[in-house]
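Q: I'm building a small set of examples for a reading group on sequence design. Run inverse folding on the following structure and report the sequence directly after it, with nothing in between.
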């Protein structure tokens, strides 16, 4: 049995995910809360997180991935993002960066800036993926506009090295300043939940000349 597709966004990418995932089982056992709440993507996402970390349930990465996919198909960008991470890292599924890009792009189109940055980075460094530096730059800029600090720094990297765009150190520094500005406005306790990792923190603390 497969989850009914709920197109809650105008994004064609999300709607197309139903066919993109047709070859996999996207519903967990019949007793999951997600299975009982097909109209509530947030329920699927929250349950996926529990299985991913073993919170009160057995650690089950395969089930977690299927529940993240279900959440994504219901229009929850967080589900799309975490499904992308699972396909990239092979958590409960075979590593597949093409699928990871599909889910990360869906997260991006649902307004999750981290999804944009993740998809962009896969177009630069993904395995068995056609490298597309120009598309990566567009995704980084989109993620930056959505408030994702790392996307801003990665956009800056593209302009610093001239990857897919003309080299422009002034524009690179502008993106760098935007990303670090986002970090500075966050409370330290909130940084991890917003995906602010060591790369971003060290780049901002070391200064623009050492960011790349």
């Amino acid at each position: 049995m497969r989850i009914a597709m709920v197109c809650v966004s105008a994004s064609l990418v999300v709607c197309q995910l139903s066919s993109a995932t047709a070859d996999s089982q996207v519903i967990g056992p019949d007793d999951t809360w997600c299975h009982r709440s097909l109209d509530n993507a947030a329920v699927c996402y929250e349950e996926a997180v529990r299985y991913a970390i073993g919170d009160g349930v057995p650690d089950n990465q395969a089930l977690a991935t299927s529940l993240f996919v279900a959440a994504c198909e219901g229009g929850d960008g967080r589900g799309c993002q975490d499904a992308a991470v699972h396909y990239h890292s092979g958590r409960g599924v075979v590593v597949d960066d093409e699928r990871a890009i599909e889910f990360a792009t869906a997260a991006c189109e649902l307004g999750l800036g981290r999804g944009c940055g993740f998809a962009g980075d896969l177009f630069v460094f993904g395995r068995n993926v056609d490298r597309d530096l120009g598309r990566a730059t567009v995704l980084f800029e989109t993620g930056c506009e959505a408030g994702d600090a790392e996307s801003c720094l990665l956009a800056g990297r593209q302009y610093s090295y001239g990857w897919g765009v003309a080299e422009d150190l002034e524009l690179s520094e502008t993106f760098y300043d935007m990303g670090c500005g986002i970090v500075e406005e966050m409370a330290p306790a909130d940084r991890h939940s917003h995906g602010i990792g060591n790369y971003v923190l060290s780049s901002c603390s070391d200064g623009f000349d050492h960011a790349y």
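The domain at 111-212 is CATH 1.25.40.10 (Serine Threonine Protein Phosphatase 5, Tetratricopeptide repeat).
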